[in-house]
Amino acid sequence: xxxxxxxxxxxxxxxxxxxxxxxxxxxxxxxxxxxxxxxxxxxxxxxxxxxxxxxxxxxxxxxxxxxxxxxxxxxxxxxxxxxxxxxxxxxxxxxxxxxxxxxxxxxxxxxxxxxxxxx
Length: 119
Hints:
alpha/beta; 119 residues; 27% helix; globular; 3-stranded parallel sheet
């Protein structure tokens, strides 16, 4: 099956599907990803097949590209403790759904602090 939306994200599922480690950089939007980052994640659904399997004791789609190592999120901007916890949960669930063995979330005050950040 081929994606009928012809834009810059047409091949994103293959790029993400082959990534052993994935780093998402996002502005905090009420404890979740910014709309452009969410769009990329939504369009990467092709890393899974329509078939289901159990992973981590839960039902998930079968992975098209196999397991990966690390799903990382770097979030910047003002956020409450509850928003940070929500984002950690989103990252953890996205890591499981996309076949990553682990997830990590980092918070910085503003995007100017991203330069030179050691992960």
